[in-house]
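Hi F.,

I've been meaning to write this up properly since the lab meeting, where we talked about keeping a consistent format for the predictions we share between groups. The idea is simple: the sequence comes first, exactly as it goes in, then the structure tokens exactly as they come out, then a line or two of notes. No screenshots and no reformatting. I'm using this chain as the first example so we have something concrete to point to.
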Amino acid sequence: MTTDEHVVLVDEAGNATGTAPKSSVHGQDTPLHLAFSSYVFDEHGRVLLTRRASQKVTWPGVWTNSCCGHPLPGERLEHAVVRRLAHELGLAADRVDRVDLVLPRFSYRAVMGNGVVEHELCPVYRVVAAGSPSLNPEEVDEARWMPWKEFTDGVLSGLLAISPWCREQVPLLDALGADPLGWEAAPEAELPPAARL
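Output, unedited:
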């Protein structure tokens, strides 16, 4: 993360209200801002789980979905997804076969034990990619592939410890169908206004 990287601030309706340095928006009074979550699948429908780096400000060392991030001001969300996959997991664009919007309006607020808040309007993407990840240790401590049903069963039963946003997303994704490679993509028109470029 560079100190001058900015995120897009949004209101409850998803309209952009300005920008702020990324370094300033994760604290005890975190403003609602635009982000994304992505779930990377291989050709067999296995999902790539990652454990957040231990030096992360929010939820360090916690297992979560494949990759999360923030679009830069003026950046299309799917471009931000591909950019962060390359940065965090070494999955270059030529290894990404599909990037599909699946939950266009997901939003959440979560509070860590130390009071740090994550507050994001966070559309969710399904990514189909080939090859093994090459982890950036500044972002990811560990990664593993898991069959989708095993993952969802673990999260829905409460037996699998996972990040709070992922815990909220999984029931919504599960409702899309048992085969993640067969989920219908959502139209881009359903994205919040700030994400429609």
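Notes:
The longest strand covers residues 96-103.
The chain has one domain: 6-181.

If this format works for you, I'll send the rest the same way.

G.
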